[in-house]
Write a structure and sequence with these properties.
This protein is an alpha/beta fold. The protein contains 22 helices and 15 strands. Helix 3 crosses helix 4, helix 3 crosses helix 11 and helix 17 packs across helix 19. The mean pLDDT is 94.
Length: 496
């Protein structure tokens, strides 16, 4: 098989192997690594429908990670997708109402980030060995709620690594915060910042691009890498579950081979829906990619007008993982819409950095025809949870509820009734207060853990172990810093 190499979206055309791209996280010029081309699936759907999740993962990932040997890749996959997941299917399809919910929350932190962050530590440590790296790898990550805990759990006590997670101290759910600040592991560090997710993400990018700091790190035996979805090692594993979902629908007789499906994704940083776009380009018969936003509807406006403008009020919503105004992974799509012209893409990203906005050309907008964008406000999100529960007895979290409402709008706008998969990105247990308040306003006086028991009773779903453990877990991380002091905190943690 011909090696698939990776290059930057911003102009540095040095080609690197998949393992080096994963190890570095971000390209040297601040761009994101993208594959030279999107490979086509080799196995047909008739073959894929008979495969387990692990076997499907190998079929997809071997096409992107071509410098990993079969033995290395299968080792990473088997150690990632094991009994950390509470269902042997790993990704579970649940039919409810007029859609099929792809439950991506059966991992150890009950959110979709587990799907990629269970395997990233194995990909990264394998990569370090392959490339003769002796430095300690420092994973630096910003989180809007879910990435943080999933990354911490994945990298906890992994030899040769440390992980530092920054989160907006007032911008995550109580369960999300408790999951992070109680994280065990001698190599784990959690820091709340006075600011929002975009502040945390921008701070991390600035640290990555600080050449003097990189030199200081190298002298001290460290190097940075990222567990955010800017790392291609996060994106590739996410492609797998869209391939698996189509094959499973085929196996279950819900569709015939070749039937197009739609995919609806609650979207913040654009990585999850970009993975579906890559799956479509690999040959999965996906008709429309339905991009669902909450009240921070920067992506809805972009798909409507071709203009990306982050200059707006930042809103804290009940779907905090989508409270984002700079969708980092959109850059990979913009690069593709530019015809892989890194100079053009870099100009857009420079405008975003300098002025908070850019506008793509009419020609580029033609490339957005695969997408449909819309948004749900807070009242619609709550109604989405309530009506699905009343009609089907099925309870979804706030992010999935945004996706469901946007899918309803898509159906009204287009009359398209094709089989649709909604990416269900978190367990309702992660957002108990918002979910139960949506079902009935009488819930709310109880504390979060009492609400957990109510949710279990209403849903008939046992309380996940990840939540049960939090009741008695001691707080191990209490660092807070100003948004402009993130670099100082990193230097302090590393003893520089």
């Amino acid at each position: 098989m011909e090696d698939l190499l990776y290059k930057s979206t911003r102009g540095d055309q040095t080609l690197v192997t998949a393992s080096l791209a994963i190890l570095r996280g971000l390209a040297g010029d601040g761009g994101l690594f993208v594959p030279e081309r999107i490979p086509k699936l080799e196995a047909d759907m008739d073959t894929l429908k008979g495969m387990s999740y692990q076997e499907t993962a190998y079929e997809v990932m071997k096409l992107f990670l071509t410098d990993y040997t079969e033995e290395e890749l299968k080792y990473c996959i088997s150690h990632a997708y094991d009994d950390k997941f509470d269902d042997e299917d790993i990704a579970v399809l649940h039919e409810a109402g007029n859609a099929c919910y792809l439950e991506l929350f059966h991992g150890s932190t009950i959110a979709f980030k587990d799907m990629a962050l269970s395997i990233l530590p194995y990909l990264m440590t394998t990569s370090a060995k392959k490339n003769g790296v002796d430095n300690e790898i420092v994973i630096l990550t910003a989180t809007s709620g879910d990435t943080g805990k999933a990354a911490l759990a994945g990298f906890a006590d992994v030899p040769g690594t440390r992980i530092i997670v920054f989160y907006p101290k007032d911008g995550v759910s109580p369960i999300q915060k408790q999951q992070m600040v109680t994280q065990k592991g001698a190599n784990t560090y959690v820091v709340g910042i006075d600011g929002n997710f975009d502040d945390a993400q921008n701070g991390v990018k600035e640290i990555f691009n600080d050449k003097a700091l990189a030199e200081e790190l190298s002298v001290s035996g460290f190097q940075f890498s990222s567990a955010n979805s800017i790392n291609i090692g996060r994106l590739v594993p996410q492609i797998v579950y869209y391939v698996y979902a189509y094959a499973r629908l085929l196996k279950d007789g819900a569709i015939k081979e070749g039937d197009p499906i739609n995919v609806t994704v609650p979207t913040g940083n654009f990585g999850n829906i970009l993975a579906a776009y890559y799956a479509k380009n690999m040959g999965v018969p996906i008709h429309k990619l339905i991009c669902a936003s909450n009240e921070n509807k920067v992506l809805y406006d972009f798909f409507s007008t071709g203009a990306y403008d982050r200059n707006r009020e930042f809103k804290l919503t009940s779907s905090p993982s989508m409270d984002i105004l700079i969708s980092s992974n959109l850059e990979r799509l913009i690069y593709r819409l530019c015809g892989d012209d890194a100079v053009k893409n870099a100009a857009f990203m420079k405008a975003l950095s300098a002025n908070g906005q850019y506008e793509i050309t009419a020609e580029m907008r033609k490339g957005l025809e695969d997408f449909y964008g819309n948004f749900a406000d807070e009242e619609e999100t709550a109604r989405s949870i309530r009506t699905l529960y009343e009609e089907c007895g099925y309870i979804i979290d706030t992010h999935t509820a945004v996706a469901r409402m946007v899918y309803e709008k898509y159906r009204q706008d287009t009359q398209d009734t094709a089989k649709t998969v909604i990416a269900s990105t978190a367990s309702p247990y992660k957002f108990t207060r918002s979910v139960l308040a949506a079902i009935d306003s009488k819930y709310g006086s109880e504390d979060d853990f009492e609400l957990v028991e109510v949710l279990s009773r209403l849903s008939g779903v046992p309380v996940p172990e990840a939540v049960r453990q939090l009741r008695t877990a001691p707080v191990l991380h209490d660092r807070i810093c100003a948004r402009d002091k993130m670099k100082d905190i990193v230097q302090e943690i590393l003893g520089l």
